[in-house]
Amino acid sequence: MITEEQVLNALKSVNEPHLKKNLVDLDAIEELKIKENMVSLKLTIAQPGSGEQMALQQQVVNAIKGAGAESVGLRFEKMSDEELKKHGGQATEEKKSLLEKTDQTTFIAVTSGKGGVGKSTVSVNLATALSRKGKKVGIIDADIYGFSVPDMMGIQESLKVSGQRIYPVKRFGVQVISMGFFVHDNSPIIWRGPMLGKMLNNFFSEVEWDDLDYLILDLPPGTGDVALDVHDMLPTSKEIVVTTPHPTAAFVAARAGAMAIRTEHEILGVVENMAYFENKISGEKEYIFGKGGGHKLAQDLNSEVLAQIPLGQPEIDEDNFAPSIYDENHPIGRIYLELADKVIGKTE
Ligand SMILES: Nc1ncnc2c1ncn2[C@@H]1O[C@H](COP(=O)(O)OP(=O)(O)OP(=O)(O)O)[C@@H](O)[C@H]1O
Questions:
Q1: Class of domain 4-86
Q2: Which residue owns the Cα nearest ligand 1 atom 23?
Q3: CA–CA separation, 273 and 253 (whole Å)
Q4: Of 339, 101, 333, which is closest to residue 213 (Cα–Cα)?
Q5: Higher pLDDT, 72 or 346
Q6: In what helix (H) or strand (E) does residue 78 lie, and over which residues does it extend?
Q7: What is the pLDDT of residues 50-97, one digit of tens each?
Q8: Most exposed among 111, 195, 246, 267, judged by the fewest C-beta atoms under 10 Å?
Q9: Which GO terms describe its molecular function (predicted)?
Q10: 183 C-alpha to ligand 1 centroid (Å)
Q11: Cα of 119 to ligand 1 centre, how many Å?
């Protein structure tokens, strides 16, 4: 049967990955039990739960089995800050979740009553416009049923993962996290309620955001699970409701807005998208999708229309391809800059 001495000898050959000293010299063995050639161990290490732990786990098991044990059970605990310092490590500061930094970051949820009204287009262009105004901006594409932000912004790469941390992709100065980064080959996903909230929560706590003045949330349309989760999670979030100018669309959007009011979220205002088409020759506005929806919605929500965005496509820039981002000199790009100004004015 394997002896305690043999186990300790084996552990002398394994270095704690963070502190680069062997486990015995570190006093990392909190508990050691041997029963019928089965070893169970409790170790204190610098960063339990990290990729480092996974690597260490394997080394410890190999070393002890190499010394003759049949099986090895392991538990890990975090080393105290005093112990860490004693061995030349640095006390690890608990990273604050973004949710605890509401004093620094304004959360803006972009919602709509139904799909296809341009909610994602408004989200990405507002984020880009705020960044063009010198603000530090992030966007979370939480529209799990139709994540489109990476494509819209012309993002080719995926995010970087290091250990447990996730780093957003930067595009037009905007830090981007999308559900799309976590789904491969575009396979449809069925997300269940709690799973959605968990995923979103991870975006707030596990993602290594740079400082943020604004975090834009592109929510799924309607008043579903995710919208509800966000309302609960972000009590201080502000909202922009997107609608088309058709009065019926505005009526549906009012429901999304009504939830904001019920949960005491401040509504910054309404964006009326596809508001009109400007005839290039006559310069006249043609109200293809109806008229008045934005104002009706704003009235219902006791709010205001922040912008009316006409129909129009961005110009395609082959060198900097982003199919849905309007250039800052494009007439619609300028409207988004005005929208950004209004948002800044209302939130600072
Ligand atoms: N002002 C506009 N002029 C022309 N096309 C627009 C405008 N706004 C949005 N679109 C187009 O309308 C389509 C729907 O837009 P978008 O995906 O932003 O809507 P959405 O409300 O986010 O939809 P979903 O919730 O279904 O993802 C896209 O093809 C987009 O390029």
A1: alpha beta
A2: 116
A3: 12
A4: 101
A5: 346
A6: strand 71-78
A7: 666 777 888 898 999 999 999 888 888 888 888 888 888 776 555 566
A8: 195
A9: ATP binding
A10: 22
A11: 7
